[in-house]
Amino acid sequence: MTLTVFIIAVFVVGYLCIALESVLEVNKAAIALLMCVVCWTLLMLGVQAFFPEVPNGAAFVCDRIQHHLGDAGETLFFLMGAMTIVEIVDSNGGFNFVRDAIKTRSKRKLMWRVAFMTFFLSAILDNLTTSIVMIMVLRKLVQSREERLIYAGLIIIAANSGGAFSPIGDVTTIMLWIKGVITTQGVLTEIFIPSLVSMVIPALILSLSLKGKFDKEQNLKVTEVTTFTKAQRNIIFWLGVGGLVFVPIFKTLTHLPPFMGILLVLGVLWTVTEVFHRMRRTSEDDTMAKRVSDLLSKIDLSTIMFFLGILMAVAVLQEIGVLTAMGEGLNEAFAGNYYLINGIIGVLSSIVDNVPLVAGCMGMYPVSEVAGDAMGVDGIFWQLLAYCAGVGGSMLIIGSAAGVVVMGLEKISFGWYLKKMTWIAFAGYLAGIGCYWVEKLIY
User: Fold this and answer.
1) What tens digit of pLDDT does each residue of 382-395 get?
2) Which of 359, 438, 435 is nearest to 391 (CA)?
3) For the whole model, what pTM was predicted?
4) 408-440: buried (b, 16+ CB within 10 Å) or exposed (e) per residue?
């Protein structure tokens, strides 16, 4: 019991240090890695107390580390692959048409165009990949960092909202979909409107603070750095985006992890761009070694390390049963009120990674065989879980993969997001739950 308290204390203190990154001036990745190692060390020291039935506790803990590292590795390789694919497409002008589609001098119009483009792209690709794409496009449209941060915050909210109503739009919806507790038709028809509302409300609030137009010379500046033809840029775009859409299909056909599909798409896209470079080589400096090193140097490794530390630290809480106990406590305190239970789970998902929370719920709550039951397939509980775990992550910048990657790309501080965006995301979150409640009253 004492070690459990210590582990929770280490996690809480580490989390606070991450939240106060701008004050402490210590990189959040370093804190996350320290938090991860200390938590696992404490678990190893108290292995006999936590797992008395295991004869070789040290070997068991090492095995659990490898297990969770494998799960985290899949996410990290997917993240690195997606970031690299988007970087290839962007650096070679592949996203020019997306930029041209949403480009406008009006700050409010750009806000709405960014919101809807992000929302629907997130459902097709996924919230993580879409966030990367939209930040790359946004950098070409808004040169002022202060103004760009507002749009970046909305991208996080819109990406998470869009991912919640699609079975392939978020890791948690994929988990629920694969388990069979939600169906494609069910989540699209019943979660779409609540998800849309959870995006529109924040966009409306943010648009009220935006007035005027961008300066034409500064804010719509476009620099073409690619030597590729328009046809080649289109090929790169469709290979990149089409490949990302193909990833869930590849998983269904081969049953291989999603990161394998990402690596396949990356390999194909990389090969095609190398062939294009070879065809259009104009100088001796345009060598393959130079292009590869330039490409890899653009991957934000600090974000990857941060994500690794957070996922592995949360895994310790999962191992010692804290997450399961939390779920059971919610069930006892709010028995039968699935709106409150899932509403609280959504808030918690902004603090603790939503993947283990959803995994814990799937293991704790049985699937009912009774048609129309709240715990049955496409029942209230599971659909609300999909919505709340996805949209709830928008309330804190480290509450979702989309938030983490945007945090790394735009160097957004935890405190800035907490002050400017948290209450706005929360308003949209509650409005979406209310919308779902109205839907159920009508139907």
Assistant:
1) 889 889 988 998 89
2) 435
3) 0.72
4) bbbebbbeebeeebbebbbebbebbbebbeeee
